Amino acid sequence: MPISWSVLPSPVGDLLLISQDAALTGLFFSPHKASHKHWDEVRASGVENPQEPVIAATRTQLTEYFAGDRTTFDLPLQPAGTGFQLRVWERLRLIGYARTASYGDIAAQLGLVPGASRAVGLANGANPISIIVPCHRVIGANGSLTGYGGGLERKRYLLDLEQGSALF
Known about the structure:
By secondary structure, the chain is α/β, with parallel strands linked by helices. It has 2 domains: 4-66, 2-Layer Sandwich (Double Stranded RNA Binding Domain); 83-163, Arc Repressor Mutant, subunit A (Orthogonal Bundle). 38% of the residues lie in helices and 14% in strands. It has 6 helices and 6 strands; from the N terminus they run βββαβααβααβα. The protein has helices at 35-45, 53-66, 83-92, 103-109, 117-125, 152-163, and strands spanning 4-8, 15-20, 23-29, 47-48, 101-102, 138-139. The strands form 2 sheets. Strands 3-2-1-4 form a 4-stranded mixed sheet, with helices on both faces. It has a two-stranded parallel sheet with strand order 5-6. It starts with a strand and ends in a 5-residue tail after the last helix.
């Protein structure tokens, strides 16, 4: 099945939505640390199709999220990654709306040694489905905002949105 894509304007900038085989495979910010590669490749090899069912559902659910009307997502996801990355991303999806967890928390929940928080951080940074797989909800052990592929301003906005106080 061909790759479908669409760009969704949002309060945190344009979002590139990518689907294939009836599942969402990517959601990238513009600019994003890896997004230019994805934007260029997808536009060259995929088909712009905002009406593709998964893309359309993603657009609707993200619009509801940014309006403060949605706290969970119900979309078929198919991120590409290693077995370890997939385990981390699945765990991220269990962090509730308006909640946060540290890298160490995630490592412990996966049954890993405390030193594995760095590996969790690397997997978190490789997340190809931003917002929906909520890597923005992962913070430093001391409660500080730490690196975010979309930039710390976006991370702060998303966390504030979920707390009911977003100003961008």
